[in-house]
Task: inverse folding
């Protein structure tokens, strides 16, 4: 506790910090395109598309071939392992396609949730075995950041002390290993929106979870300037009878972060959870116009909230690819503006407003 | 860990937050005039004055009768218990003198350090017994904030894990009790400058200590917006052979704060430790000019660094009182400039207040 045994050299730290800053440069956020094979089934089945490797490739290609309009809104793309090694129709590696346009390539490195025995349905996340070697390989293959998702639930009895500590610890171990391999860790302690709890409850739990996360990161000697946080926004539970405005959500979210996230953290990239595309943009915008002091970048790392309309427009049809890409570009631009606090909601009709809530979401 | 049991009402939170903000209003800091009887012995001995209650009263009177010039420099004064109930020559209670000029009254509430058995000379701080009742009484008697000092040391074996967690815990208990009684806690986890360690070592230890402090504060449900931090600046040990510039001290201090202190904390009021008056002001100025984002107020809570010249000018002689007061006013004004980054330095530092940091960085 008293002597420092150097974890990283000055050069390593500098590299990590610069990567983190590039990902969350003003007006930019992350496209989370790292849905596992299982998750992709849930995306493709509703639009009548078979969950084959080729269809997954075609779909990601639709996103990655968006034109230069996304270069000013997307700072990073998170890949699933399979996708990192897929190629476009022209035979260009997706990773190269993205990297060549100065968008940082990221990779999901966790191996999913596993149960914590003796708890009320709580989980931790596995994936630490051989993580160092995997990170080294991913770095060679073009990735500069990684993502690891932990899941917590709010109920009468959860999250328990064990779930909070165990997930915080595993996030810190993952972060430490990534940094040793030149990879910026995005730390994702997602608190699910399932339940009928109100906004205050979510705020309270979020504060406790994040306090534990940052204590664990300190204990594990993680270099905060070379990390990003991917938290849930503070929202009421999905079955909560009370409605809250986006300003209330923003205030609760920013307050929770102000009480727990050290200023050294380069950026906070919110997950969208079950929010609709429009909701996610409007809430992000309110967060950025919240009048409290916010010393970190506050931007997006959206999966569903960037892709829902694109998927709907495409539906697997070769002739609808451009339409799909166009929908994606639209949401990317909307969120780029929201990350600057400059988004004006155009209206709530259409696919953009449809809730994307799936009960008990686990990738 | 999952349900919130309310600690403070909205009204109580607002009062605490507003008090904290007033203490650290722009250009203002704290006069730490809370030296215990034992500490006053050391101060007075240095200028050949006998340590009697009357002499202690006379010296504090010298400080408290400073003219209106200090009203814009001093946001709060920390009293020792004895002083809280003393009067001026004219029979005006010191508390009233201070309050009537819009300066907030604080009181030292800890009861000194006690050894931690089984450690290498480490301590914790006592004073929790009956603290709630004492706070309630102090509030009636005019105090709105309190200070509690813990002490940690850097050596080959220190600080130990026990010392860090025990002191963090006791600071959090103190904070919780104070807030229940409408008193803003100023928590002081002082890491002594004794030793030959370098700047990096002090930064490392400071980061570990503060991470533990804020985890304890979270665990004890302390309302951060209604608290203040009184840490050491990050400096090399007293016997460290290497010299560091004010910019290096500032960069190390601000980096350590950025990695550990949540933005919700309204202000950080540095202690001066063993620094000279000028050193402390120059460092505080450099801290305020540090180019990193600093979402809290960064100001002073100085004891010796505000009083040394005044003591030396006084030497216990009635005819020197006005001169002594003038010395204090001078340091108050200098530090008011320093906490705004506008101090151009005294004899040893001839340049303009704006320090250049160049490539100085503390990775």
Result:
């Amino acid at each position: 506790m008293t002597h420092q045994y150097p974890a990283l050299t000055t050069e390593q730290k500098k590299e990590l910090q610069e990567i983190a800053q590039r990902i969350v440069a003003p007006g930019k956020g992350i496209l989370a395109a790292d849905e596992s094979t299982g998750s992709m089934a849930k995306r493709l089945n509703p639009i009548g598309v078979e969950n084959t490797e080729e269809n997954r490739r075609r779909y990601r290609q639709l996103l990655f071939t968006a034109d230069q309009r996304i270069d000013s809104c997307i700072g990073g793309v998170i890949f699933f392992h399979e996708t990192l090694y897929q190629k476009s129709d022209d035979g260009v590696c997706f990773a190269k396609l993205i990297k060549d346009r100065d968008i940082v390539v990221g990779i999901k490195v966790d191996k999913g949730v596993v149960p914590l025995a003796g708890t009320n349905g709580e989980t931790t996340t596995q994936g630490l075995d051989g993580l160092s070697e995997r990170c080294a390989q991913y770095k060679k293959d073009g990735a500069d950041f990684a993502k690891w998702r932990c899941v917590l639930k709010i109920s009468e009895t959860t999250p328990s002390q064990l779930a909070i500590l165990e997930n915080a610890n595993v996030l810190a171990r993952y972060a430490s290993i990534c940094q040793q391999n030149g990879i910026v860790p995005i730390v994702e302690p997602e608190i699910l929106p399932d339940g009928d709890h109100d906004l205050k409850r979510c705020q309270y739990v979020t504060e406790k979870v994040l306090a534990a996360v940052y204590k664990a990161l300190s204990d594990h000697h993680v270099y905060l300037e070379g990390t990003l946080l991917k938290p849930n926004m503070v929202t009421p539970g999905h079955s909560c009878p009370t409605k809250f405005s986006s300003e209330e959500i923003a205030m609760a979210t920013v307050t929770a972060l102000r009480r727990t996230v050290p200023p050294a953290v380069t950026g906070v990239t919110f997950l969208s959870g079950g929010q609709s595309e429009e909701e996610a943009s409007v809430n992000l915008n309110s967060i950025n116009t919240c009048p409290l002091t916010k010393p970190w970048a506050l931007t997006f790392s959206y999966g569903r909230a960037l892709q829902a309309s694109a998927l709907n427009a495409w539906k697997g049809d070769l002739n609808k690819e451009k339409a799909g890409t166009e929908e994606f570009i639209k949401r990317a631009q909307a969120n780029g503006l929201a990350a600057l606090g400059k988004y004006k909601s155009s209206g709530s009709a259409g696919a953009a407003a449809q809730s994307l809530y799936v009960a008990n979401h686990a990738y | 860990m999952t349900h919130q049991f309310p600690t403070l009402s909205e009204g109580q939170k607002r009062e605490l937050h507003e008090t904290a903000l007033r203490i650290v209003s722009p250009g203002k800091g704290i006069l730490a005039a809370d030296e215990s009887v034992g500490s006053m012995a050391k101060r007075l001995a240095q200028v050949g004055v006998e340590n009697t209650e009357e002499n202690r009263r006379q010296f504090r009177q010298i400080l408290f009768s400073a003219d209106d010039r200090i009203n814009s420099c001093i946001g709060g004064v920390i009293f020792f218990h004895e002083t809280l109930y003393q009067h001026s020559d004219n029979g005006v209670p010191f508390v009233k003198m201070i309050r009537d000029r819009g300066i907030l009254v604080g009181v030292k509430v800890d009861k000194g350090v006690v050894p931690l058995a089984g450690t290498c000379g480490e301590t914790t701080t006592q004073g929790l017994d009956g603290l709630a009742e004492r706070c309630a009484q102090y509030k009636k008697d005019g105090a709105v904030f309190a200070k509690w000092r813990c002490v940690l040391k850097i050596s080959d074996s220190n600080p130990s894990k026990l010392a860090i967690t025990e002191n963090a815990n006791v600071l959090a208990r103190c904070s919780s009790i104070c807030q229940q009684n409408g008193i803003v806690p100023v928590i002081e986890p002082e890491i002594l400058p004794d030793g030959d360690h370098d700047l990096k070592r002090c930064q490392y230890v400071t980061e570990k200590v503060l991470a533990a402090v804020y985890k304890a504060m979270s665990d004890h449900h302390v309302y951060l917006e209604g608290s203040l931090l009184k840490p050491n600046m990050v400096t090399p040990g007293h016997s460290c052979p290497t010299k560091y510039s004010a910019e290096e001290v500032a960069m190390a201090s601000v980096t350590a704060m950025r990695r550990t202190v949540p933005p919700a904390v309204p202000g950080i009021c540095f202690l001066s430790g063993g620094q000279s008056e000028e050193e402390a002001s120059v460092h505080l100025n450099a801290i305020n000019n540090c180019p990193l984002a600093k979402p809290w107020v960064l100001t002073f809570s100085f004891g010796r660094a505000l009083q040394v010249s005044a003591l030396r000018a006084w030497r216990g002689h009635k005819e020197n009182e006005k001169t002594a007061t003038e010395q204090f006013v001078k340091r108050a004004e200098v530090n008011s400039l320093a906490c705004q980054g506008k101090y151009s330095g005294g004899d040893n530092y001839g340049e303009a207040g704006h320090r250049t940091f160049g490539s100085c960085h503390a990775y």
